[in-house]
Amino acid sequence: MKTRENRSRLAAWVAALSLAAGAAYGGQLDLDDPDDVIRLLMKTRCSMNDGETALYWWEGRMYSRKPAEKNRHLFNVQGMNIRHCETLNDPVRGLGFVARSRELMLYLDPDTNEVVRTWANPWTGEEVEVVQVANDPPGNYREVWARDEDGNPSATLSYFFKDGLMMNGGGAARLFYSNPLGGDYQQYVGGIYHAMEFGTGASPADEILDADLPAAQDRIISWGRVSKWLPWMKMGDRPGVVVFHTAGIRLSGFDEMPAVMLDEIDANYPEYREPPPIRTENPKETSWTVFKDHIDAKRAAENPATD
């Protein structure tokens, strides 16, 4: 499906759902019950059926924000995440789940929407290699439980209902940790990865609260991030940040994905057609760890060890 058609589909869903005033909210899930909150999270993130695949796609833009300079539209972006869940149960903590996924995001030319392989940095004048986001698995998944180790409810959800929709969001992932590209003295000289990520979602209320439906298929999402310059941009300590703003939907299958994503997956990331095993031993990945692996491999190829 072309990107323009996906945008039309997204707009049509929003319009149709907005007309659903009076839709029943009386589904079987009780959001005052921590176990049902877990069931709802499984429906949105993956499925209440263990191993059932969920596929999300999004598109948007990446901007620069630099002091004393007008913001620049650097790239378009398109991304996908394919995932599945496994149900957990504990006599004290109640219901829980763990999820694993693969996530790909492409940097695209703002005019042609083609994948950008090299980029002329407008601030340094250097031609740099663009490293796409390819996290297998991403670093944002963990075991999620209805209750803590003492049996107190711990699963929470910020949400509201409006015109037949259940919407959730408003929070932020506040990231602050040692940058994997730095050395052992970052607490003294800086080099901490500092970012915020934002997520919002909306689903038909009658679908998301129906305990007999294992997944929230008609789902709209939005993702955003504010972070330091990406490492492949080679900006060093120059002041400024990059801002991502995107919107997307849950897809029924790969045939609904735009050609630019499908072509890149088939050519360079065929494993991204399936999620990784739930119990994968692969370390969690971020754009920074992927770039470190890329640079390490490149250096090893340029300077092979000699006996």
Please name the defining characteristics of this protein.
single chain; 6 helices; 307 residues; 10-stranded antiparallel beta sheet; alpha+beta; globular; two-stranded antiparallel ribbon; 35% strand
Summarize the structure.
The protein has 307 residues and is of the alpha+beta class.
**How does the helix and strand content classify structurally?**
alpha+beta
Pick out the low-confidence regions: 14-26
User: What letter string, H or E per element, gives the SSE order?
Assistant: HHEEEEEEEEEHEHEEHH
Tally of helical segments: 6
Give the N-terminus to C-terminus distance in angstroms. 53 Å
- What is the 3D form? globular
For the biggest sheet, the summary is: 10 strands, antiparallel
Helix content: 10-25%
Write down the Rg. Answer: 21 Å
Give the mean pLDDT: 86
Number of strands: 12
Reconstruct the topology from this structure.
Elements: H1 3-18, H2 34-45, E1 54-65, E2 72-90, E3 94-108, E4 118-120, E5 127-129, E6 133-135, E7 144-145, E8 159-162, E9 165-178, H3 186-189, E10 192-204, H4 205-208, E11 220-227, E12 241-251, H5 259-268, H6 287-302
Antiparallel strand pairs: 1-2, 1-12, 2-3, 3-6, 3-7, 4-5, 8-9, 9-10, 10-11, 11-12
